């Protein structure tokens, strides 16, 4: 570990790991919540090599490190045995986020850890169906049976896996979550449905259910929970809530076994009696509703989903559809939703090919090759964030091509029959395990080829890929650059990221920035809630809460912009980013928008430090103006004689 000794010294001087309730990090500092701050050796920490300073604010003990804080944080977590947490406390964040954002965050947290293995097992099952359809072997052979077991293992026991991830998301004991899921797929209970029922509930309605067993005289509606999604998620949430309550009321001496004892004793019967049946009925209704909507016009649905799927992915909205698709596979044994967006990644890949063949920009051409290869296998993030979105037109063209591909998938009634791989590995999941290769499968091939060719040709002809002016197709709103006096090759102009009033760093109430310990530069009081890129370069750091961003210019200047002071506490509220970490940006490109009034009403200032963190290489010459417009000259960096100009 690179920062092993530093991590050990920090843990020791915050009072030891037993004094730490939690630790997270922001873009420059470790943020500890200590049981007793008086046990921390603040003076020792302040004078420690590798520590800039120490601050106390908002109930947090903050150890300021600098730009490399993520690496130090990893070593602190490893050595201290702390739980690695997201910088935003999920429980507090949930109270401030709107309901939709909370739902998306919950779904992504529960399903994301399983998707890799889910795709892998789905691919195996899909290839198994393909090989059987090709006549390579029959479903009676041992080869088929073993491959089918591999393909079915995760999906069949899905409640157990989701019990783990859901309990973790809800901050419960993951093994209690797994135990609840295991009870749902317990084979003996499933086998009881084969016998004659004791009586029937809700006879004559859509909820008619035979009752085979009772629990303390209460009727239990047994259902098939293997591969189910909704029941275990709700059960894990209830279990986590009960676990927290039992933890508070049960004495410490017997807490280790009595908390899970009572949690399982209450949650599992409650799940079988109430949660499971209601959740299952809700899932069935949800599946029927989606199929009904698509049946109204599968072509329109395909065009709509195809056109917007990549936009959904960018903003994380696709997570709302994935559990519906999984539920459809469980209930109807097929799903049309994910089938309708199947051509989108190929449209994106075709657009990248158009850029690659047309552009004269050597750097863009070199980026296009790996983006094209990864796109073939369904991984489109390099294509989106590195090529098509920054150039704007290729991204729009790829959405148009994906819409046409989606419409064709709707025409042919294509479906997926299992959760499978991405890109070319997704084709086996579109083979009907019973009917084999059908018109929907061939339709998928036609749609994919069409989307790919359209994405390629339209981008090549109209995508602007051959323009030499890099600013011509920037992905975000840009303010025209002000005319600037030419500077020699050993200097660089840092433009203002804001419109506002210029202040001295020393006016900031944050000692780390005010002292210049984190970098030299100026502070700006923004009058407009928009942050524009001060240079052309690469986003070297973008904190998840979007309150701070680091950019490395093409000439090597490292710039840190921290919107307001201690605004990480807002946990992303009032901030929205229009770029991603690692993305290429151009001077004047809109990177972040923020709500000035909202931030101030929450009790925070918006005075923002704009600092050069590798300032030792330069002599800084700030503008003498007191008020400045975005993208006007803010600071001139003159390379020192003992430094090498880039």
Characterise this structure.
The protein has 646 residues and is of the alpha+beta class. Helices cover 47% and strands 15% of the residues. The chain contains 21 helices and 22 strands. An eight-stranded antiparallel beta sheet has the order 17-13-14-15-19-11-10-21, with helices on one face. A four-stranded antiparallel beta sheet has the order 1-2-4-3. β3 and β4 form a beta hairpin. α1 crosses α3 (69-80) and α18 (393-412) packs antiparallel against α19 (439-462). The longest helix is centred in the middle third of the chain and has 42 residues, at 255-296. The radius of gyration is 28 Å and the shape is globular.
Keywords:
646 residues; alpha+beta; 8-stranded antiparallel beta sheet; 4-stranded antiparallel beta sheet; 21 helices
Write out the strand line-up for the largest beta sheet, numbering strands in chain order. 17-13-14-15-19-11-10-21
Question: How many DSSP-defined strands?
Answer: 22
Regarding quaternary structure, what we see is: single chain
Stretches with pLDDT under 50, minimum 5 residues: 86-96, 466-489
Please report the number of helical segments.
21
**Distance between termini?**
31 Å
Mean pLDDT, nearest integer?
A: 83
Q: Describe the biggest sheet?
A: 8 strands, antiparallel
* Principal-axis shape: globular
Structural class: alpha+beta
- Strand content is 15-25%
Helix proportion range? 40-55%
Radius of gyration: 28 Å
Short description:
This protein is an alpha+beta fold. Helix content is about 45%, strand content about 15%. α15 (about 345-360) crosses α17 (about 380-390), α16 packs across α17 (about 380-390) and α17 crosses α18.
């Amino acid at each position: 570990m690179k920062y092993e000794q530093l991590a050990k010294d920090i843990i020791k001087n915050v009072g030891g790991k037993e004094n730490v309730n939690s630790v997270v990090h922001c873009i420059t500092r470790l943020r500890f919540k200590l049981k007793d701050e008086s046990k921390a050796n603040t003076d020792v920490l302040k004078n420690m090599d590798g520590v800039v300073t120490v601050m106390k604010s908002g109930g947090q003990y903050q150890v300021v490190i600098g730009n490399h804080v993520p690496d130090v944080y990893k070593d602190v977590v490893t050595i201290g045995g702390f739980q690695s947490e997201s910088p935003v406390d999920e429980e507090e964040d949930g109270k401030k986020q709107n309901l939709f954002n909370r739902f998306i965050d919950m779904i992504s947290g529960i399903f994301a850890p399983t998707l890799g293995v889910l795709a892998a097992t789905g691919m195996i099952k899909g290839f198994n169906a393909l090989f059987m359809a090709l006549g390579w072997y029959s479903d009676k052979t041992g080869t088929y049976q073993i491959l089918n077991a591999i393909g079915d293992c995760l999906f069949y026991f899905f409640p157990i896996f989701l019990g783990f991830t859901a309990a973790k998301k809800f901050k419960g004991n993951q093994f209690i979550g797994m135990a609840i899921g295991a009870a749902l797929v317990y084979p003996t209970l499933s086998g009881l449905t084969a016998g004659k029922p004791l009586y029937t509930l809700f006879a004559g309605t859509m909820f008619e259910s035979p009752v085979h067993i009772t629990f303390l005289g209460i009727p239990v509606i047994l259902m098939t929970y293997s591969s189910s999604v909704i029941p275990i998620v709700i059960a894990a949430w209830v279990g986590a809530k009960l676990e927290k309550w039992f933890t508070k009321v049960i004495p410490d001496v017997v807490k280790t076994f009595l908390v899970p004892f009572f949690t399982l004793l209450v949650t599992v019967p409650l799940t079988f009696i109430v949660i499971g049946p209601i959740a299952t009925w809700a899932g069935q209704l949800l599946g029927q509703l989606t199929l009904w909507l698509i049946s109204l016009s599968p072509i329109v649905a395909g065009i709509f989903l195809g056109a917007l799927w990549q936009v959904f992915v960018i903003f994380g909205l696709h997570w709302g559809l994935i559990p519906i698709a999984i539920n459809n596979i469980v209930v109807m044994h097929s799903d049309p939703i994910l089938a309708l967006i199947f051509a989108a990644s190929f449209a994106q890949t075709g657009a990248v090919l158009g850029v690659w063949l047309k552009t004269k920009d050597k750097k863009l051409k070199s980026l296009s090759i790996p983006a094209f290869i990864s796109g073939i296998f369904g991984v489109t993030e390099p294509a989106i964030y590195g090529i098509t979105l920054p150039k704007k037109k290729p991204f729009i063209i790829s959405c148009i091509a994906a819409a046409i591909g989606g419409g064709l998938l709707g025409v042919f009634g294509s479906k997926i029959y299992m959760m499978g791989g991405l890109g070319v590995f997704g084709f086996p999941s579109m083979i009907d395990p019973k009917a084999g290769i059908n018109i929907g499968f061939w339709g998928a091939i036609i749609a994919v080829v069409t989307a790919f060719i359209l994405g390629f040709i339209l981008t090549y002809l109209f995508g602007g890929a051959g323009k030499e002016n890099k600013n011509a197709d920037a992905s975000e709103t840009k303010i025209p650059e002000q005319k600037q006096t030419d500077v020699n090759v050993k200097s660089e102009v840092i433009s203002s990221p804001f419109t506002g009033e210029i202040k001295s760093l020393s006016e900031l109430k944050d000692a780390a920035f005010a002292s210049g310990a984190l970098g030299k530069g100026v502070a700006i009081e923004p009058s407009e809630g928009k942050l524009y890129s001060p240079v052309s370069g690469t986003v070297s750091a973008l904190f998840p809460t979007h309150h701070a961003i680091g950019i490395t210019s093409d000439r090597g200047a490292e710039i840190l912009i921290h919107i307001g002071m201690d605004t990480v506490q807002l946990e992303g509220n009032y901030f929205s980013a229009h770029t991603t970490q690692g993305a290429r940006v151009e001077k004047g490109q809109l990177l972040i928008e923020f709500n000035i009034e909202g931030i101030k009403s929450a009790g925070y200032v918006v005075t923002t430090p704009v600092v050069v963190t590798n300032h030792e290489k330069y002599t800084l010459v700030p503008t003498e103006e007191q008020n400045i417009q975005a993208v006007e000259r803010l600071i001139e960096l003159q390379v020192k004689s003992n430094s090498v100009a880039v």
